[in-house]
Design brief:
It contains six helices and two strands. By secondary structure, it is mainly alpha-helical. Strands 1-2 form a two-stranded parallel ribbon. α1 (about 1-15) crosses α2. It is globular, with a radius of gyration of 17 Å.
């Protein structure tokens, strides 16, 4: 629902001659084609390895929905295996999206991290 609301605003404000649903369909098709080509940023694997060596638990928190996250990470199963949890905007406990911290709070809770007082 959030995605459709955002698309409606974008289509209206940018005067894109498409209905929001049609716009989203085109965007999703392009994402499905291009997102699996995402590459890991330089230094990420070394950082993850260093955190693992120190026993620091890690989770991914993303504003992407499940489908988009799957496309982005399709070719990175080994990298993903380093994380105890992958929390997307589709997770049922994520009530509010950006800029609210819900996604990250759910990710932290999932791996047993506590919120500072």
């Amino acid at each position: 629902r959030r995605e459709l609301e955002a698309a409606a605003v974008l289509v209206r404000e940018m005067e894109i001659p498409l209905e929001p649903q049609e716009y989203l369909g085109k965007v999703r098709t392009l994402q499905e084609q291009e997102l699996p080509k995402c590459r890991v940023m330089p230094g990420i694997q070394e950082t993850i390895d260093a955190l693992n060596m120190r026993g620091i638990p890690m989770a991914i928190g993303t504003s992407s929905d499940d489908e988009t996250f799957a496309w982005k990470t399709k070719n990175h199963a080994t990298l993903l295996s380093n994380f105890k949890a992958h929390i997307t905007a589709s997770h049922p406990d994520v009530i509010n999206g950006k800029p609210a911290p819900d996604t990250f709070l759910v990710a932290a809770k999932t791996i047993g991290a506590t919120q500072p007082e």
